[in-house]
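Listing 4. Sequential folding, example run.
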Amino acid sequence: MPTLFLKEGPLRFRILSLCLLVLVALAAGCQGDYIPTETISPMETFSPMPTPVPTAVSTPTPASKTPLVVFCAGSLILPFDQLEKAFESRYPEIDVQNECHGSIQVIRHVTDLHEKIDVVVTADASLIPMLMYATPDPESGKPYAEWYIRFATNKLGVAYQPQSKYAAEINTENWYTVLPRPDIKVGIADPRFDPSGYRTLMVFSLAQELYQNYSLYNQMFQGKFSTPITYFADDDLTTITVPEIVETKPGASIVIRGASIQLIALLQSGDLDFAFEYESVIQQHGLQMIHLPDALNLGSVDFEDFYRQVQVNLDFRRFASVKPEFKGERIGYGVTIPSNALHLEAAVQYIAYLLGPEGRALMEANYHPLFETLLANNFAAVPQALQELVAPEPQP
């Protein structure tokens, strides 16, 4: 199937999640138990990611405009739609072309598919040095990135609808006893592709420590996957290992999708009762929300030491030169410009707008806070125009 794009005014997305708006309506008998691995992303090859179902066809970029290709995490869809329109109003000579996926998929488009992308924005800043610093562009031999700016945070929460099972019963005190029940459907993002997925695994590990109940993780996940997501607790660190193949067993209460934003349509259709989502996304879509304690939502500076008790490893053969290991930490979104970007000047202008007063106000209006102090990794390599907006990241 050829790749098409969504066009709404200046907006272009090739959004993985929007395919569900069509599929949910068509799949009358589907309960959303799982997507076979090969329909999410081929793991044995470096084939392109699955082609989403388009809703409209874009018009070509006028020859007089600079096309600026922006790939961002799916949790940024709505604020970045507005950001695109506001930025193009300020800079009418630039045509922003947004595309959203799970954050690891965003980076794969650069490092595996070698697409020319001008701005990369991920929901986990640590992905940029892990997967882009370590991977050279075959054309230039240079790393795909040499710097990033940690600019925004978020919190994990549990989204649901008034008609969800046990909606009248679940609350901030009992959520971890309700969600493992076998007669409900709980959605999580695939931890191989989306930080929301591996952060959800972290939440249950940390909940065991917070509530001193060391069976919570197994109650939620044990026996639900064809290949187990293993859990090993040591004195100082709990390690969760995600295997090459991640698919749930038929009839399992866990539902996996490639990106957390895909779960929204399933909640709205009633195919899910609950889903782990970022608080900003839950509020943007007007859903009901269970606020997780600060010790678990991965968004509090006061609990950063507590978060470090857990680590998630991805056991992938396709990461032959990199061993992805994600340590529990406060959520931090990252932005960079790939070394093979075609429109460096426009990319710098876009990031400066995002980090400036207009971008900050727009993000906060969408319930997505920016850090007060924006920190740059490898500050010396950051473009000069952006150095004025950030501070050097402290050295470990």
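-- end of first protein; second protein begins --
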Amino acid sequence: MTAGRTSALPSDSFRAWIERPVFIMSSPRSGSTLLFETLAQSPDLFTIGRESHNVIENIPAFSTRARGFKSNRLTEADAEPGQIELLARGFYEGLRDRDGRSASGRVRMLEKTPKNALRVPFFAAAWPDATFLFLYRDARQTMASMIEAWQSGMFRTYPRLPGWTGDPWSLLLVPGWEELKGLPLPQIVARQWATAMNVLIDDLASLPPHRVRSIDYDDVIAAPQRAMEDLSASLDLAWDRVLGAHLPQSKTTVSQPARDKWRANEEVIEMVWPLVKATDEKARAFADRNRV
């Protein structure tokens, strides 16, 4: 059902006027932008049209820099009502539907930012009616894309990270990042992925089951129409688009996607596989249990 529209901005609470939001949760380079851009075609959803790094981190209480570069982690303890209202206003004022119309009245928001893999308890406390959509992608494919992202220079989130040496820090800042200093890039990426995924799965597992969904990247690619119809029904969203057999490339694509593209880095990925094997099994099992 499409959210109602009124002619005035909310007078009580921006947070309350974002109802039943959907947060896509995944590691970086898991295909979350593609899922976000596709699901945002539902007539019931509003997005800010991009990742919300600045919306979140421009608020001092949530700023990674102001918090001493500990990590991108936010928890329930950070969900202070006044700060949440600031964040909700930042979201709300940027929300647009699929046709570019501004939010007016109560709306459903779709949000996707890979750093949010470390923020499930925070958003769960801020929006008790939120649903968390876990996107699983094969760890080999994901790590290959993460290595490519680091090497491209396009995803430098903290280029002057205090105390860090080597390639400028890229993608999300995980707890314990200091221990990765001086390691070869494949090991940095493997530990970055495993840390983020362990935090994410543990946090999602602590939520009531009705607040969690999961979907597999390969299923989205293989049958986009069916995947979006099933997902929308599960999230109580309308779906009226007809998708082609192949989805367009997402705006954050670095190189031509291919299922076996990771094999260009197969040797180094297999070398670090013991660092991620148990976590990948954990993530895959969780995804299977909560599959749409």
